[in-house]
Amino acid sequence: MYKKQFEIRWSDVDANAHLANSAYTNFMSHARMSFFAEQGFTMPEIRKFGIGPVVFYEHMYYFKESFLGMPITVTIEVSGLSEDGMLFKFEHNFYNQKGENLAFCEMMGSWIDLKTRKLTGLPEPLLELADKFPKSKDFKVLTKEDTRKHGVRPRPLEV
Fold this sequence. Notes:
Shape: globular
Order of helices and strands: EHHEEEEHE
Helix content: 10-25%
Distance between the termini: 48 Å
Number of domains: 1
């Protein structure tokens, strides 16, 4: 399990004076990029291959409030990866200084080729690194069907 600590800043709270939902997303994103970097997926390394990460969804569940100035810990567990490394799934948990679980998020994403703007598998050197990611106890090899498990599809605007 990967852990990243933060302190809740003024810009992280909303009108209710607690951690804003957008701040949870920002903390998760920052934690993921730190995780990737520590696994050898630094931004310069990723850019060498002309790819970048994209988010398909983030399903958040909030349990307890957190407030300005409080330290929080964001954890990451890799709970899924496709055989070609194109798809990945992370589980994030947020904890306060007492170890109480503040929130949980399941996140799924992929890699995109920055020239073609299409999803792509990982190049071999990065796939070798991804295969070494620490995995959760419920880790699953992902397939394209997993990206549609919630049944949500695009709908055109009806005029």
